Amino acid sequence: MINSAATWADGSLLAFDLETTGTDTAVDRVVTATVVSIRPGREPITRTWLADPGVEIPAESTEIHGISTEHARQHGRPAVDVVAEVAAALAEEWSPDTPLCVFNAVFDLSMLHAELRRHHGRDLELGGPVVDPLCIDRHVDRYRKGKRTLGALCEHHRVRHDGAHTSTGDALAAARVAWRLARDYPAEVGQVPLDVLHTRQIEWHRTRTLGFADYLERQGRRAADPAEAAELARRAAGVRMEADHWPLRTEPLPETAVGA
Predict the structure, then answer these.
(1) Which of 131, 128, 151, 255 minimizes the C-alpha distance to 204?
(2) What is the mean pLDDT of residues 217-235?
(3) Tens of pLDDT along 58-113?
(4) Between the CA of residue 182 and those of 12, 96, 124, 175, what are the distances in Å?
(5) 3 state DSSP class of 101
(6) Could you say which of 22, 52, 236, 255 has the lowest number of CB atoms within 10 Å?
(7) In whole angstroms, what is the distance from residue 231 CA to residue 176 CA?
(8) Contact predicate 13/98, CB 8 Å
(9) CA pair distance 168, 162, nearest whole angstrom
(10) How far is CA 191 from CA 7, 102, 129, 146, in A?
């Protein structure tokens, strides 16, 4: 049952999503991007970009989002322009009172951050609070079994997910799940001041990530195969390093990164 009390989700929202060449922010690139402006009583304003990433789009990525290397080269705009325009579009409306809704924020924001460094030698600035439906859902319903993909969250929370695996469809779906979480969990989410909710998500991400690292370490200690134990220890160390990096990861800017 949806709580009828007012929440921050009844105000202005900004939604964001990327489709990319892969999942490694150090080497992969943006292919499509969408920024959706949602204001009470108005139709959402959607801005979408198609980039030529300047690298091959792997077949497995094309299978997910439907954009091939050939299509991106023929119809996409230079990545250097797209990245700058996306960052500018976020900066126009993202503010302390207008949160950015983005599913698995640490990936999408880190990818945009890496692309800004690559093409423009500057960092992504956080204009306001982030609302990450994945982070929140994992906290408020932590023991629920099953997948936590965007599609799975949409199904569980009974919200529309048109155009799955397109940046536009996924951005709108992220905003809808965020709205539903705010309404269904008013005390923990919807009626919490946005700056406080942002800070809480940092801690929720940290707690969950460290817990997963602990689990991997326990599995490693139990492993009979030394190679398996070493691999689990390596994974645990990598996961532990991620604990303090929400909603984005930052790495030093290599001297040769700009224009690479």
Answers:
(1) 131
(2) 96
(3) 999 999 999 999 999 999 999 999 999 999 999 999 999 999 999 999 999 999 99
(4) 14, 17, 27, 11
(5) strand
(6) 255
(7) 38
(8) yes
(9) 9
(10) 5, 19, 14, 28
Q: What is the C-alpha to C-alpha distance for residues 246 and 248, in angstroms, rounded to an integer?
A: 5
Q: Which residue carries 């406080």 as its tokens?
A: 196
How many other β-carbons are positioned within 10 Å of the β-carbon of residue 218? Answer: 12
Q: What is the C-alpha separation between 10 and 183, in angstroms, rounded?
A: 9
For the chain, the domains span 8-192
d(CA 51, CA 87): 14
The tokens describing 212, both together, are 């997963």
- The mean pLDDT value of the chain amounts to 94
Rounded distance, CA 38 to CA 44, Å? Answer: 5
Structure confidence at residue 254 (pLDDT):
45
In eight-state DSSP terms, residue 158 is: T
In contact, 76 and 52? CB cutoff 8 Å: yes
The pair of three-digit structure tokens given for residue 59, joined into one six-digit string: 């077949």
DSSP letter string, 183-216 = HH-IIIIITS-HHHHHHHHHHHHHHHHHHHHHHH
In this prediction the pTM is 0.92
User: CATH fold of 8-192, please?
Assistant: Nucleotidyltransferase; domain 5 (3.30.420)
Q: Does residue 259 surpass a pLDDT of 80?
A: no
| Bridge-based pairing state of the strands 100-101 and 130-131 | parallel
For the chain, give the number of residues.
260
